Amino acid sequence: MAEVPEVNMPRIMLLGVGGAGLNILGRARALWPEGLRLAAIDTDAQHLSCCGVPETRLIGETVTRAFSTGSSPDLGRRAAQSDASGIRAMIGDLDLLFVIAGLGGGTASGALPQIIRWARADNIMTMTFAVMPFEFEPEAARRHAEQALQELRAASNVVVPVRNDLLAEENDERTIQESLALADRWILPGVAALARIFCEDGVINLDFGAVGAMLQGGEGQAVFACTEVDREAASGAVEQLFRHPLLGGDESIGRARGGLIGLTAGNDFRLTELRSMVSEWSARLPEPAVRNWGVSLNEGMSARLGLVTLLMLAPEEEEEAGEERQDGGEGERRGRRPVQIEMDIDASPRGPFAKLEPTLFRGQNLDEPTYLRRNIRISR
Ligand SMILES: Nc1nc2c(ncn2[C@@H]2O[C@H](COP(=O)(O)OP(=O)(O)OP(=O)(O)O)[C@@H](O)[C@H]2O)c(=O)[nH]1
Ligand SMILES: [Mg+2]
């Protein structure tokens, strides 16, 4: 009789990069599923030493002398490059790398895009949760964050920008640390639930192969939200999830090319409940989005129900481009709208040569501008 191969769970790591990444991972130790490898990378030795994450890696000691980069993405990038082999060895055997980082400082903004590129080169799928700075932070922080986000989008399978402004409550009396901790509470349960559905032996795990295919096809843009309700309020839970500000409303939901939903429930969760929630979620996605779902059962959740959804989005411009897409290169592959607007040029065919004999060559009049002869539209 043929031997049944051992069941392989995907090898997953949750990595915090830079100060915010370390804080977020450290703050919620109780949430992380058993068996999930937790790791942290930073340039700041002191922060690493007290973050409470089991596996830590100090990078760029020769670049920043074990201090932070002082908000310099350039130093962050150099710090990563100076420790390339160590970082690659740390992540090298993974199937999926979840990353949490705050963009806008120097370490994560500079080092993370580089780390993600190495992961991709080693065929590791990546899912990055990128906390974006508050509006009130310095202009340079927001600029560095946007730049890093673009680089991450180009390199990652999935990048979920999580805007701090959307997370923190306004006009309250909390300290900065309390507000950040509160903001983190919006991100953490969702990331933890996703990780659990991938790596715990749940009743119905997400099919890693199917999700992998969906992520591989990703073009970097994604949104994500989670919610938890009383079991009795379960009928409104999917609607509540879709109203979550992090999903960005109907416009962004309408751009979903693929999605997954993960449910966390008690052991007495019924099949009919599951069916109705998955159908309701599924009906909200446009065709022909790929749909994946998984359930994780958990003693402690008998009176509650947790929902997390991740939607992979088509780039914003694509719909506007419609069938006019004609650049045929990288822009087309990634669905960007080609900039192809006709310039308002005086199109008198022969211009100053109008009174002369035409210069004919292989049937073409060379006195006419090439763009007219070949019917080329010139972009502005
Ligand atoms: N939600 C949340 N956001 C944070 C937290 N700490 C920092 N941030 C955000 O993350 C951004 C980047 O800050 P850090 O993570 O400290 O920066 P870094 O990557 O360590 O870079 P350097 O310290 O400059 O080398 C900040 O601009 C904040 O918007 C946190 O604990 N929670
Ligand atoms: Mg730092």
Word description of this protein:
Residues 323-333 have a biased composition (Basic and acidic residues). It comes from Kiritimatiella glycovorans. The chain is of the alpha/beta class. It has three domains: 12-168 and 175-200, Tubulin/FtsZ, GTPase domain (Rossmann fold), CATH 3.40.50; 221-318, 60s Ribosomal Protein L30, Chain: A (2-Layer Sandwich), CATH 3.30.1330; 322-373, no CATH class. The chain is 37% helix and 21% strand. The model is unreliable at 318-353 and 370-380 (pLDDT under 50). The structure holds guanosine-5'-triphosphate and magnesium ion (MG). Guanosine-5'-triphosphate binds at residues 18-20, 23-24, 43, 68-71, 102, 104-108, 131, 133-134, 137, 141, 164, 180, 183-184.
Rg over C-alpha atoms, rounded to the nearest angstrom: 25 Å
Low-pLDDT stretches are: 318-353, 370-380
- In the CATH classification, which architecture of the largest domain applies? 3-Layer(aba) Sandwich
Helix/strand class: alpha/beta
Content of β-strand: 15-25%
DSSP, total strands: 12
* Topology pattern, helix = H, strand = E: EHEHEHHHEHEHEHHHEHHEHEEHHEEH
Broad shape: globular
- Looking at how many chains there are and whether they match, the oligomeric state comes to single chain
Region (Disordered): 317-360
Keywords: Cell cycle, Cell division, GTP-binding, Nucleotide-binding
Protein name: Cell division protein FtsZ
GO molecular function: GTP binding; GTPase activity
